[in-house]
Amino acid sequence: MAEVSDILIELCKLPGPSSYEEPVTARICELLKPYVDESWVDVMGNVIAVRRCGTQGAKKLLFDAHIDEIGFVITGSQDGFLRFERLGGLDARTLPASTVEILTQPPIYGVIAVMPPHVLKREDMEKVVKIEDLFIDAGLTKEEAEAIPLGTPGVMRGDLRLFGENLICGKAIDDRAGFAAILKALELLSDTKLDVDLYIMASSQEEVGVRGATSGVFGIAPDWSVVIDVGHGKTPDAKPLEAPEILDGGIVINLGPNMNKDFTDSIIKLAVENEIKHQIEVSAGGSSGTNARAIQVSREGVATSLLSIPLKYMHTQVEVASINDIEAAAKLMCETAKSLKGGA
Q1: Which end of the chain is more exposed for a tag (fewer CB within 10 A), N or C?
Q2: Active-site residue among 206, 207, 245, 319?
Q3: Residue 81 exposed, middle or buried by CB count within 10 Å (0-12, 13-18, 19+)
Q4: 206 in catalytic set
Q5: Do 188 and 331 form a contact (C-beta atoms < 8 A)?
Q6: Radius of gyration of the chain from Cα atoms?
Q7: Reduced to 3 states, what is the DSSP secondary structure of residue 211?
Q8: pLDDT tens readout for residues 88-147
Q9: CA-based torsion, 185, 188, 191, 195: positive or negative
Q10: Which residue positions in the chain have pLDDT lower than 50?
Q11: How far apart are CA 160 and CA 126, in angstroms?
Q12: CA 132 to CA 151: how far, in whole Å?
């Protein structure tokens, strides 16, 4: 397997907004082949794969990470400019003067138009921008813009690169970083005999309501699940309780009602015993806002744990994460899979 950073950069460059994940899905199927016995894409666009332990009726462990990213969809045109609406949690504050990729065939480059400050009143400069007041300039004539099919998706453009001390910056790190960690865990487990069937779900449509995971986990019916997503990395302007996760501080193990206490306690113990750098975060609410909220309550319930990769500037095209934290997540998932006893 290539370096985690190389895999992550490759995955993040692929466009895959919610419900339009096909380019990412196709590459993930290829990346999984050396490590699993079988893989398929279900009706929701989830990539599901299994590595069987060889024991009939063995229990099932699921590793889940969502592969969709925030994006937008074209809703119309006006005088050569394109109107759009968000797919997922696209933050209007970050959009003016941003660059975008409209996923026509071939894709079209565009910019989100912004009025220069010279022509704005002071009170207008202080207003919060609304999505409905923005439009995309793709260098099109009125006729060309009208020819762009309604419903065409698009994504923000982000310059994926390594910088600082083993940090990575760009778009879609939420949550392609989670899948990169899963892939690394599979590599670490390549020569290890497991006592459980290990399922992988690269889930779709998380950013629009955890839809892929909701249906995918129902079909898998796992006994345990480790959901890996991103969390809010600490920055100077953030209050401690709003962004407690420190980049390069290790993988974050979440505690709270959305997580199974016994399973999570065992994962914390594994992190300590194996000297895996980690942090603890309390998610006191009834839902973590991740796929864990759907997986935990599927069927008769699934013993679920949530790991978070600290991430700065979430839902922008300049998300920042630490490669070290991603690798720590992979090691912890590896040890978790090795620890479970699930023969019939």
Answers
A1: C
A2: 206
A3: middle
A4: yes
A5: yes
A6: 21
A7: helix
A8: 999 988 998 999 999 999 999 999 986 544 444 565 556 677 888 899 999 999 999 999
A9: negative
A10: 116-120, 344
A11: 31
A12: 16
